[in-house]
Amino acid sequence: MSHPELSVVVPVFNERDNVAALVAEITAALRGRTAFEIVYVDDHSRDDTLAVLQGLKATTPELRVLHHVSQSGQSTAVRTGVKQARGAWIATLDGDGQNDPADIPKLLQARAAADARVKLFAGWRVNRKDSGSKRWASRWANAIRARVLQDATPDTGCGIKLFEREAFLDLPYFDHMHRYLPALMQRAGWSTQSVPVNHRPRTAGVSKYNNLQRGLVGLRDLRGVAWLITRSRRTAVEER
After folding, report:
1. CA–CA separation, 61 and 38 (whole Å)
2. What pTM value is reported for the model?
């Protein structure tokens, strides 16, 4: 497929037990609705995630598999997938199965009803299925981020998002940037919209982060994003 309308990008690390079910759910949600491709980016998994993905290509013609030769992190995996994607719009999902692919059509419907300046539709987990400590840490982090960045986004950590490929690739790249996409899109002059989505408990595998890791990295990145916003300069351009 040379020019799908949508590319679904899924970064994964050690998710061999979640891959097949999620691929099946993506195809069930999108076949017959839009021309799409699925771009999995294996971030140098230590289990047989890559082999499972390669096996699924025989029965899933929409599936493409990219592999990092060294582990590089989720933001880099997302950017790898977006750079290689053929669609003008990108939907992202976490590879752990907690995001529901059935919500992708909901994001597409929101895009169809929105102003053209909205370049990012961010999932908003209104009924999270994580542990109590993880939900508390997320609320704390979102409150601080919203106060500092004023991005009017209740949930930037949700993995399911829909955005324009060109707009994303124009953003400054740094590790963990995927957690700040609304603020970065707004910095670039675009509008963003939050859309309530489903959230599911993890049924296989283990989380790759703990609350302390997220908190320490998040505070450092938050300062960096705030600095980027203060240094931003935009102007309209006319061709004459």
Report:
1. 9
2. 0.89
